[in-house]
């Protein structure tokens, strides 16, 4: 599964209607590899993104047990112009607006592993392209409006539609495990100290 095709996410978005995503199958779930991608990031990665965290649909935490932080539309082109829709992995950091802001703990503002969905979330029939990042860390409070920076390092799988919420949740949990496995590799761990992060 290559991360780059002849049609990028931005090109698909310019067509004006959500694409039809393939339906996830039982064999896809059973055959999923637990680590993906090369031993070090290859073009177009790394992709650096940043923007203030936006309010999304509120489904990630409530429906799926996977709270997400949404990036604003204007922060997407560095990624959507060179990749297709799907699930990606990398690192992210939340940055408070002020140094004396004590809303977040010291570990909340570290560079942390993340998985990211770039697409239309076909199960929920979204009408526009979104980028939703799940930072693999338990935050005690919301951080809407805070700056989030991300370095996207690799591609996990295509965007899929699902016959049930349980099947979607199963895939999300697998995505998290795959991302953590991928980020254990030394050439990926180097990006925790990327100059993009504060």
From TrEMBL:
Entry keyword Lipid biosynthesis: no
Ranges where the Riboflavin kinase domain occurs: 42-184
Keyword Nucleotide-binding found: yes
Gene3D superfamilies, A to Z: Riboflavin kinase-like (2.40.30.30)
Record EC number: 2.7.1.26
Region span, Disordered: 1-27
Keywords noted in UniProt: ATP-binding, Flavoprotein, FMN, Nucleotide-binding, Transferase
Ranges annotated as biased composition (Low complexity): 1-13
Pathway(s) per entry: Cofactor biosynthesis; FMN biosynthesis; FMN from riboflavin (ATP route): step 1/1
Superkingdom classification of source: Eukaryota
SUPFAM superfamilies for this protein: Riboflavin kinase-like
PANTHER family: RIBOFLAVIN KINASE, RIBOFLAVIN KINASE/FMN ADENYLYLTRANSFERASE
Family: Belongs to the flavokinase family.
Entry function: Catalyzes the phosphorylation of riboflavin (vitamin B2) to form flavin mononucleotide (FMN) coenzyme.
Name of this chain's protein: Riboflavin kinase
């Amino acid at each position: 599964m290559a991360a780059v095709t002849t049609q990028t996410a931005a090109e698909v978005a310019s067509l004006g209607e959500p694409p039809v995503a393939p339906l996830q199958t039982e064999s896809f779930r059973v055959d999923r590899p637990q680590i993906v991608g090369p031993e070090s990031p290859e073009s177009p990665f790394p992709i650096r993104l940043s923007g203030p965290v936006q309010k999304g649909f509120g489904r990630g935490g409530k429906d799926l047990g996977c709270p997400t932080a949404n990036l604003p539309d204007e922060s997407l082109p560095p990624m959507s112009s060179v990749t297709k829709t799907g699930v990606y992995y990398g690192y992210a950091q939340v940055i408070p607006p002020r140094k004396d802001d004590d809303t977040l703990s010291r570990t909340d503002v570290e560079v942390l592993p993340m998985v990211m969905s770039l697409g239309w979330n076909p199960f929920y029939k979204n009408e526009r392209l979104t980028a939703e990042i799940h930072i693999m860390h338990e935050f005690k409070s919301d951080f809407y409006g805070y700056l989030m920076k991300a370095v996207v390092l690799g591609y996990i799988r295509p965007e899929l539609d699902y016959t049930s919420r349980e099947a979607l949740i199963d895939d999300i949990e697998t995505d998290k495990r795959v991302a953590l496995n991928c980020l254990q590799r030394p050439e990926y761990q180097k990006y925790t100290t990327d100059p993009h992060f504060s």
